[in-house]
Design goal:
Substrate Binding Domain Of Dnak, Chain:A, Domain 2, Rossmann fold, 3 domains, six-stranded parallel sheet, 15 strands, binds Broken Fe4S4 cluster
Length: 661
């Protein structure tokens, strides 16, 4: 029998093989053992009240399949999806809320450990919020921005602030269909309310509110988070980094930052090279301190500081199995509870830092933005103190890959026109001419039920081969980074001739790293800027653009998929559909949403079909916009092998340009 490929990340597979030879359990072995419940998997299980759980199976029609209360299969499936959207929105909402409180603390002078690093971005955001900034003290503006954004969480009536950043036509669709989000918390609460037993029993109405909730994430919680993170820690610009489970160093203290919110991680980056800490590490026999990232925290610190990433979700246990991590510090989201169990078999200390995430067996060091540096130093010291406890046991990896990370909307505009003529004109023109066929936003998790990272890698390679520019976030970025895909050379070696020409002219990779999960909002604002630039669609809907989450896991991913669909982007998720039991719900999410918003949410387990569907959507959008028919190979020249000078030139073009906007 052929060996089952559990992860397509070569270095991860190496560690996994080592682990399995020692009977060490991972998410891969658990995924193999625990088959998904076929009823719950497709959305046919209702457990919102205690007359059930009701399993809506075995009937001839969806209307015949009813729970004890009479709820039909489409109602149950729709409710389940809306609850997923609400949970995902809550995660990103809390993330945004925490960032807003940190900004407020900075503005009030309650913490000396953070500063506003990007005043231009603060002014830009103040402008969106109609807050006067000319001639005012920076902290006063920051306070007004923080307070105004915090209002988005508890607002009862009106509309979330950033909604008005969307193209007018997109906003009109939202108004027409009643999905303009009021307040983030309000939409989440209403989702839970509507989906209890005896409430909304119309699948379309339920799903419509699901979209409203999702929009409060995309244009609310997540966007607040991205914007404030840029204000506090700097708007990303391309920067060199490395990716792989091989980033850990034998002779140095290895400290990993894992999770999502960047405040603690940024502070650790700040203190880790302090001479006192480095000297202290040396007293313990280490040659230095090596900081690495995991999951979305990795994306945050990689794109601002070039901190290397050990990979995405499925690499977290494997990281510990290298035997080289002295401490893994986690905050919120995507933290496997299994971490503490596996850490017992090695010397790694797992440190929790958020009230919201406690792991039995972990050491808790509560983060507090008011004394951030003191806490960060304490954490670094815990890692240093644990260095002498390192055992010989572990699967060491040496291979690592170069990465160019950190493409913000601001940088993408800049790279197309410089400081004074920053715009999306060249990209729009390249799409109009058919040089670039379209754009795919590739996002979401890597999943142990696939050959993990494999579907990301397959789609990224095939899409760029077809002249489709890929922008990536979250663990999709990690999947591409750990495969060595996030470099300009990827264009030379793998992109179609038209896309290659564009990438070579600007000196960018054909897969642009846009950041973490909350940074999917950068795709929304980029699409908005492209609509405003002209020549393509005048709204987000109708663009030759598609969203793909090939290996999704989380409720956050569902919420993201839905806010893209509501914003006008056809979205395709890999894997089985969580509403697959109901053809009516599937019809609403595809046909009805496309009619109303020009977006859709599909689930498709076959990666080849995902590719086909994405390209079909792009080509149909091109046709509807009356753009030049895309012809493969029409642009570009013969592939030339680049000499070192040419490579250096590309590298130089991709380097950070300080103070550019
Ligand atoms: S970390 S939500 S596994 S992308 Fe943002 Fe990765 Fe998915 Fe978590």
């Amino acid at each position: 029998m052929d060996k089952v490929v559990k992860t397509a990340n070569k270095e991860a597979a190496q560690v996994l093989e080592w682990a399995e030879s020692r009977n060490l359990e991972t998410c891969f072995t658990r995924a193999e053992r625990l088959k998904p419940c076929p009823i719950g998997e497709t959305g046919a299980c209702c457990k919102v009240c205690h007359m059930g759980p009701c399993r809506l199976v075995g009937k001839n029609t969806e209307e015949e399949a009813r729970g004890v209360c009479g709820a039909t299969l489409p109602v149950v499936a729709a409710r389940n999806l809306v609850r997923m959207i609400a949970a995902g929105t809550a995660c990103h909402g809390d993330h945004g809320r925490d960032m807003a409180f940190t900004l407020l603390a900075v503005a009030n002078g309650d913490t000396k450990d953070f500063q506003i690093k990007d005043v231009k971005k603060l002014y830009r955001v103040a402008g969106y919020l109609n807050i006067e900034f000319e001639g005012r003290p920076v902290n006063d503006v920051a306070k007004d921005v923080a307070i105004k954004l915090l209002e988005d969480f508890g607002r009862q009536r009106g509309v979330v602030n950033f909604i008005k950043r969307a193209p007018k036509k997109t906003q009109e669709r939202w108004e027409k269909w009643g999905i303009l989000p009021r307040g983030i918390d309000r939409e989440i609460a209403e989702s839970l309310d509507r989906t209890t037993m005896g409430m909304d029993a119309d699948p379309d109405s339920l799903l419509t509110h699901g979209l409203r909730t999702a929009l409060s994430n995309g244009w609310g919680g997540s966007m607040i988070s991205t914007e404030i993170t840029d204000i506090l820690f700097g708007t990303p610009m391309p920067i060199k980094a490395e990716a792989s489970l091989g980033i850990f160093k034998d002779e140095e203290v290895n400290l990993v930052i894992h999770g999502h919110e960047p405040s603690l991680a940024e502070t650790i980056v700040d203190v880790v090279s302090e001479p006192e800490l480095v000297a202290y590490a040396m007293t313990k026999g280490a040659k230095g301190i090596n900081l690495g990232g995991m999951c979305c925290t990795a994306n945050e610190v990689m794109m601002r500081h070039g901190i290397p990433t050990a990979g995405g979700f499925t690499n977290q246990e494997l990281g510990i199995m290298t035997g080289l991590i002295d401490a893994m510090v986690v905050d919120v989201q995507c933290i496997m509870p299994a971490l503490t169990e596996i850490s017992k078999k090695f010397h790694t200390k797992v440190l929790t830092t958020s009230e919201k995430v406690r792991l039995p067996g972990a050491q808790h060091v509560q983060f507090d933005e008011h004394r951030a540096k003191e806490i960060a130093r304490e954490i670094v010291k815990i890692a240093i103190n644990n260095f002498p406890n390192r055992k010989k046991e572990g699967s060491h990896i040496t291979e690592k890959f170069p990465v160019i990370a950190g493409f913000s909307q601001e940088y993408i505009e800049y790279m197309q026109g410089g400081k004074w003529r920053a715009s999306f004109r060249p990209l729009n023109d390249a799409i109009m001419a058919g040089r670039v066929r379209g754009v795919v936003g590739m996002a979401g998790c890597d999943n142990p039920r696939f050959p993990a990272t494999g579907v990301h890698k397959f789609l990224a390679t095939e899409l760029i081969k077809n002249d489709v520019l890929v922008v990536s976030t979250g663990c999709s970025s990690a999947s591409c980074a750990t495969a060595g895909f996030l470099t300009p050379e990827m264009a030379i070696e793998n992109a179609g001739p038209g896309l290659r020409e564009v990438c070579e002219a600007i000196g960018i990779p054909p897969i642009l790293h846009l950041g973490s999960c909350v940074d999917n909002t950068r795709i929304l604002t980029i699409a908005t800027a492209m609509a405003a630039e002209g020549g393509l669609s005048d709204e987000i809907g109708g663009m030759p653009a598609v969203g793909i989450a090939p290996e999704f896991i989380t409720e956050k991913a569902i919420s993201i998929g839905c806010y893209f669909a509501a914003s006008g982007v056809p979205v395709i998720f890999g894997g089985e559909s969580p509403v697959g039991a109901s053809s009516e719900v599937t019809r609403i999410m595809t046909e009805v949403w496309f009619e109303r918003f020009k977006g859709a949410l599909h689930f498709e387990p076959d990666p080849e079909k995902i590719l086909e569907m994405a390209i079909d959507y792009i080509d149909k959008a091109r046709e509807a916009l009356k753009l030049k028919k895309y012809e493969p190979g029409r642009f570009g020249t013969e592939r030339v092998l680049m000499d070192m000078a040419a490579r250096r030139e590309i590298e130089r073009a991709a380097k950070p340009h300080l103070g550019i906007y």
